[in-house]
Design brief:
This protein is mainly β and about 375 residues long. It has no helices and 32 strands.
Length: about 375
């Protein structure tokens, strides 16, 4: 029996030629890399042969997508600070390229795991990025290296993990803010920066303001512990452009009040958020005299206020209506009391009488019934 063979027919110049051939599969190109630690530049990855490769660096213990670096025909690629890696952190490395058929081919190495170097204080510099924040930049990814004593708000600068910013709290104003950086898992590798925080960092939205509950009006503010720091408030009614001081506020009136922040009685160009103020004075009407005839009644009263007593004599818009059942009210205008006489009553008839208080012609208290 004839041996089976794979034959190829070649037609050349009209001559039929038969040749024997053996089918072979081309070996994929091989690549390899070595890792060298350079304390100043980070890790140096040397790849053979040179070409377009993709380096993917995975942080140990974190399954998220690795950081990718394109080699662009470089033979040596620095990975470390310039690769936006974290200091003193364990990583694994994968090197691959895509062949003409679109397949990803991985390179071989005996050193695909490494730890980055510790970070020193000279690797971090104070910089500017976000107004109202203290910012620090580095060639390292320092997003997880920073810490503050009171867990201040920390932001990355423009999505750049190499610059992080801390917003000082109002409690830091006129004192020092301490920020600590730690090099990953390295022991005894921490260092700190101390920044003196001026009133320029004051965030008015964090100032606590307690609206007044009586007159004369006072708005209680919680300010940083700075010397000669104060707030000067001005107020205005909703539909009235006139501006008044806190000491000029009237009761039973709606105001919007805003405070100008001063240091040594000089504005620092910052204002507090607006505070809605309406002081409701608790008026207590007490009857002091009651005389009656068969057709009239005369009664007197005094007015006191627990939360507005000091200003009560100045309530010139405060007035009273004296009335008995089914009889027209009689006006009285004295702020802290008065006397009323109601006439035209029927003899031997019971009446319910009362005094009601009004401010600016709007009723604010119905008073107490007088039988």
């Amino acid at each position: 029996m004839a041996a089976f063979c794979l034959c190829v027919l070649l037609l050349w110049a009209g001559i039929l030629v038969v040749t024997n051939s053996t089918m072979t599969t081309a070996e994929p190109p091989q690549c390899s890399y070595t890792v060298t630690n350079n304390n100043k530049l980070g890790l140096q990855i040397e790849i053979n042969p040179p070409g377009n490769y993709t380096l993917t660096v995975f942080e140990e213990g974190r399954p998220q997508t690795g950081k990718k670096i394109q080699t662009d025909h470089l033979k040596q690629i620095p990975v470390g600070k310039t690769g936006h890696l974290k200091p003193c952190t364990d990583y694994s490395l994968s090197v691959s390229f895509i062949n003409d058929a679109g397949n990803e081919i991985f390179c071989h190495s005996t050193e695909n795991k490494f730890r980055t170097d510790p970070m020193s204080k000279g690797d971090v510099k104070e910089t500017s990025c976000i107004p109202g924040y203290v910012c620090y930049g580095s060639d390292w990814d320092i997003s997880s290296s920073i810490s503050t004593p009171n867990k201040h708000l920390v932001k990355q600068c423009r999505n750049d993990s190499q610059t992080v910013c801390v917003r000082p709290a109002n409690e830091d104003i006129c004192s020092d803010l301490n920020v600590t950086f730690t090099s990953g898992s390295c022991v005894n590798s921490s260092f700190s920066f101390t920044k003196s925080i001026s009133v320029d960092f004051l965030n008015p939205s964090e100032i606590q303001q307690i609206e007044p509950t009586g007159l004369p009006a006072e708005i209680t503010t919680t300010l940083p512990k700075c010397k000669n720091l104060s707030v000067s408030y001005t107020c205005s009614e909703k539909h009235n452009p006139d501006v008044v001081k806190l000491s000029e506020l009237e009761p039973f009136t709606d105001y919007n009040c805003t405070g100008l922040i001063l240091q040594n009685n000089t504005s620092i160009n910052k204002t507090t958020p607006s505070v809605q103020v309406r002081v409701v004075c608790d008026l207590t009407i007490t009857y002091t005299k009651n005389d009656s005839t068969s057709t009239s009644i005369e009664f007197s009263w005094t007015t006191t206020s627990k939360n507005c007593q000091q200003e009560l004599p100045n309530f010139h818009k405060l007035s009273y209506d004296c009335s008995c059942q089914k009889h027209s009210p009689k006006p009285a205008t004295s702020p802290d009391g008065g006397t009323c006489v109601v006439t035209g009553l029927n003899p031997y008839t019971d009446y319910k009488c009362r005094v009601g208080a009004k401010y600016n012609e709007i009723q604010v208290s119905t008073g107490v019934k007088l039988m």
